[in-house]
Design brief:
Radius of gyration: 22 Å
Strand content: over 45%
Number of helices: 2
Distance between the termini: 48 Å
Order of helices and strands: HEEEEEEEEEEEEEEEEEEEHEEEEEEEEE
Number of domains: 1
Structural class: mainly beta
């Protein structure tokens, strides 16, 4: 039997190409361009300025401000009298807000070397989450007693208060400033865990966005690329398996909502190793942090992981994507911040 050498070598080359392609897929495409060590302990809050000139991290009661190249610009010792819980920039990048276990919210002037400008008092217990209303100087703060306050940061006046009945864990404003979402702890007798507020209607809760029985919304975030909003929820009992009957061991899930399509759930992924941090990389791609120190890139359209790598030695507690420079910032319980670039 004669063998056509051209066909033989073509088949061999295609097989080699197939195996080499598989090896390329298995090798992650993100590399560390900078590692920052925070000596105070685990990073409790992380933010970057809208112009992406600054990366700000909090550890215990200290705030560190870095240039995007990793150079330390300023350290604010004793920024709060207790642990710092959250950091957020205004959309102009002019102001930075911090909240702490000392029940105080502080405003820092980024245009003037992060000078302290104002302290907001009014919450009886700590506020784990703060967020600026886009294109304004008004700030929202979510409290562990269930109250959400909207502040004028210049006068320190409370413009209005929203009373809920469960601790607020996370808040996020849509980039078009049309809606505001907050997630909270819940008990079995309640049905509302994730609420959306219509900002054009006196900030009255507009509708229930999604709800589970006895579920905790630990993180919510609007996409900057499209009309989507994501959330991470977890449960301490066998509630989520009623939604995912084929995953009885799964107690944590990441959900992607399409706000423009009447809050339709586009995709759900479930993974017991998810932490409470994620961000949008594009319209249909999300990056998520894991308890084992890994970062994974999810293609939500096809429900597949497109990239995965060991980023930290311990669990990842903060994760952000900088869209202009296309960098990922990760912070772990190991006290390191890493800046990642896609090759």
């Amino acid at each position: 039997m004669k063998i056509n050498l051209k066909i033989f070598f073509l088949v061999i080359s295609n097989i080699s190409l197939l195996f080499s392609s598989q090896l390329i897929v298995k090798k992650h495409s993100w590399e560390t361009i900078k590692t920052l060590e925070i000596n105070n302990g685990p990073i409790t809050a992380l933010a970057f300025s809208p112009n992406e000139h600054y990366i700000v991290a909090a550890s215990l009661n200290t705030i560190d401000i870095y240039a995007v190249n990793g150079n330390l610009i300023k350290r604010i010792d004793n920024a709060h009298e207790g642990k710092i819980l959250d950091l957020k920039f205004s959309t102009s990048g002019h102001y930075l807000a911090s909240s702490g276990t000392d029940k105080k919210i502080k405003i820092w002037d980024a245009y003037n070397n992060f000078t302290h400008r104002k302290t907001l008092y009014g919450h009886p217990i700590p506020c784990p989450t703060v967020d600026f209303i886009p294109d304004t100087n008004n700030l929202a703060s979510g409290c562990s007693n269930g109250d959400i306050k909207i502040w004028n940061i210049f006068t320190a006046e409370v413009l209005w208060t929203i009373h809920t009945h469960r601790p607020i864990n996370s808040m996020s404003f849509s980039y078009d400033r049309k809606s505001f979402t907050y997630g909270m702890n819940n008990s079995p007798e309640d049905t509302e865990k994730l609420n959306i507020l219509d900002l054009s209607n006196n900030n009255i809760p507009k509708k229930l966005l999604y709800g589970y029985e006895d579920c905790f919304i630990t993180s919510v975030k609007y996409s900057q690329f499209t009309d989507h909003m994501g959330c991470i929820c977890s449960s301490s009992n066998e509630v989520l398996p009623t939604i995912y009957p084929d995953h009885s061991e799964i107690l944590i899930c990441l959900i992607n909502f399409d706000i423009s399509a009447n809050n339709q759930i586009t995709k759900k992924i479930t993974d017991p190793e998810l932490t409470n941090t994620f961000d949008f990389l594009s319209t249909d791609t999300l990056v998520a942090g894991y308890k084992n120190g890994k970062i994974k890139i999810w293609d939500f359209e096809n429900s597949i992981i497109t990239d995965s790598w060991q980023a930290h030695d311990t669990g990842i507690n903060k994760l952000l994507f900088m869209p202009q420079t296309e960098l990922i910032i990760s912070a772990g319980n190991d006290g390191f911040i890493k800046i990642w670039r896609n090759n």
